[in-house]
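Q: I'm writing up a methods section and want to include an example of the input and output format. Could you take the sequence below and give the corresponding predicted structure tokens, formatted cleanly so I can copy it straight into the document?
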Amino acid sequence: MTWSETEYVECLRAERRHYAWLMQRHGELAPEEARAAALERYPYEPSDAPFRGLVFHDEAWHWAMLAIHGDRYTVAHPELAQPSAEYRALE
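A: Here is the clean output for your methods example:
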């Protein structure tokens, strides 16, 4: 995908915000811990990084559920297979 630096940074910011919200809401992390987890999951990648933004191929919901519930979260928690309305409302 080709995007401007502004578009990349906006996407990164949005995914970090969503991930941190999920880590607080579903992962029961404190706000500071949730923000740190989001920064770790979504580090800034320089424009010449070969796979810059690959993490965006799945949305924050998926990455957070993997971190919280593990690889089989859709089996153990089928209600979490799709993002909640509350999560969608964040957008």
